[in-house]
Amino acid sequence: MHMRKLFLGLFTVLGMLAFVPASEAATGKIGFVNVPEIMAKAPQAEAARAELQKEFQPREQKLGELRDQIQKEETDLKRNASAMSAERKKQAETDLMQKENEFNKQLASFRQDFGEKRNQVLQGLQKQISKVILRIAKAGNYDMILSDGVVYASDKINLTNKVLAELKKSAK
Predict the structure, then answer these.
(1) Which pairs from 52-60 meet CB under 8 Å and 24+ separation?
(2) pLDDT beyond 70 at 4
(3) Is the pLDDT reported for residue 164 higher than 70?
(4) pLDDT by residue (tens digit) across 83-117?
(5) How high is the pLDDT of residue 171?
(6) CA 132 – CA 159 distance, rounded (Å)
(7) How far apart are CA 34 and CA 148, in angstroms?
(8) Assign residue 141 a region: left if phi > 0, alpha if psi is -120 to 50, beta otherwise?
(9) What is the DSSP string of 89-144?
(10) What domains appear along the chain, each with residue ranges and CATH number?
């Protein structure tokens, strides 16, 4: 059933292309942008990473210190458990479990906050990149600019460096 729909769709597209004059099909101007490369190299992306690091590094560092403290107390408990009374050992295990629960709660909150902020920053960056791509497309009279899912694009149609240059200009 799925293959039948696929073939039907393919024949429909081929049928539509048969009615497009060859001269119209040959005049379309196509460009390509490598968005992951832009996201990695754009100064705005670097600034976004620095902003995230500045905001979240102190919390991350505190979580690391808390994790280290819990691991040390766990090691101490294992080492000294045989010398402890049953009541004291149980109290130490309960305290350790409470600290682990608190750590896990703080870690989950950190991850959620970081993810929300990262998505917010990425959306802003993607809007900036899209505006630059649209500006280049209109200025260059492009009919189509491709990004994801392209297996090969020659340097002749690759606009990635042009987009990066525009982003660098606007970052100054």
Answers:
(1) 52/114, 52/117, 52/118, 52/121, 55/117, 56/110, 56/113, 56/114, 56/117, 59/110, 59/113, 60/110
(2) no
(3) yes
(4) 999 999 999 999 999 999 999 999 999 999 999 99
(5) 84
(6) 11
(7) 7
(8) left
(9) HHHHHHHHHHHHHHHHHHHHHHHHHHHHHHHHHHHHHHHHHHHHHHHHHHHTT-SE
(10) 28-170 (3.30.910.20)
Nearest 5°: phi and psi at 171?
-80, -20
Record the tokens describing residue 10, joined without a space. Answer: 């393919």
C-alpha distances out from residue 150 to 1, 31, 145, Å: 28, 11, 11
Residue 48, both tokens? 């976004």
pLDDT for residue 71: 97
Q: Tell me what pLDDT residue 78 has.
A: 94
Q: Minimal CA–CA distance to 165: which of 35, 31, 43?
A: 43
Is the separation of the CB atoms in 133 and 18 below 8 Å? no
